[in-house]
Automatic annotation (TrEMBL):
SUPFAM superfamilies for this protein: Six-hairpin glycosidases
PANTHER family: UNSATURATED RHAMNOGALACTURONAN HYDROLASE (EUROFUNG)
Signal peptide: 1-21
GO MF term set: hydrolase activity
Listed name of the protein: Family 88 glycosyl hydrolase
Alphabetical UniProt keywords: Hydrolase, Signal
One Pfam family here: Glyco_hydro_88
Domain of life: Bacteria
Amino acid sequence: MTNPLRFFLLSLLLLSQASWAQTKPKAAAATKPLSQRMTDSFIAEYPDSLGIQKSRIARWGYEQGVMLAAIERVGQRTGDPRYLDYVHKIVDYSVQPDGTITGYKADDYSVDNLPTGRSILTLSQKYPKETKYRKAADLLRQQLTTHPRTKEGGFWHKKRYPNQMWLDGLYMVEPFYAEYSKLFNQPANFDDIAKQFALIEKYCVDPKTGLLYHAYDESKEQKWANKQTGQSPNFWSRGMGWYAMALVDVLDYFPKNHLQRAQLIKDLQRLAPVLAKYQDPKTGGWYQVTDQGTRAGNYIETSSSSMFVYALAKGARLGYLDKKYAAVAQKGYDGLVKNFIETTPDGALVMNGTVSVGGLGGDPYRDGSYEYYLSEKIKKNDFKGVGPFIMASLEIEMAKR
């Protein structure tokens, strides 16, 4: 064989190998379940090498917490150590060798500071010789000892939101509180945890619809608060989504013989048919303002829809709910995938349709009106949507198997 011909054939071989190397990962990725594909897409967008100054995922907050919890579950499900390694690296940007936490201010008394504590608890068990994780978990737990409460013992949402319990806060506090209590043998805490749910059921549930108002103000002083009930004016789906996820996650740790465990299951069973009733029959999703789907401006919101899918699917899988709710979850999930999940040219997944935020009070003042909830921006690949979607995907994938 002449040298020019040999060179030509060798060039073709190298070119074909390069092409195979470029296409094989994309082809392989397409065969993975959606939970893993979405997680891989997220990690590619937020690699663990960016550092705390550049990466949103490395900054302390509840959005980080829900994302890391989702990634951790993918690692547990797949057995692939890359995912827990990622969580480990991200948490270590904030947790210092002495157990202090960069970006955490205990004096803020904000429940939003606690969700990432669940990943810290995981690391404290995996790396027991690295005492910083236990110290950091203890630091977060200590906040609850002095955290301001309503007269009946409910955690304020934040110090700057006095006398208020928000639905969001149940997810921010109770799963961490319950897991910590189980790991470190503090059974008395479960009475306190159950009380938080009981207060929300008492003050936020609307007797006509069964839906839950976003929050209540015990003092009834806020401009958004009903002067008779203290309730906020509307039903915000993501607030209920946080609450539904809190219920199914807390049950993972609640002692089987605890008197209030059965009540928590009843709370979930009360909520499930309400969610099924307000599911949009066309898309399978849930509207931003839950009960006003036909009103101008309302839209299917993807973080809340993912949260409801997760809670209903998990509840059905674990036997808390009738199996018919697995079908409700599947319909919701199919709608999410069909209408809101896109694939980019390089094979990454993108999630659309997540509202950026929802709150009450503050400056500028959020009055809880229908117009307010419709005024917040809709975002792509928002952590509060992607994390719950990954968790919902895992539940749907387990149900199929």
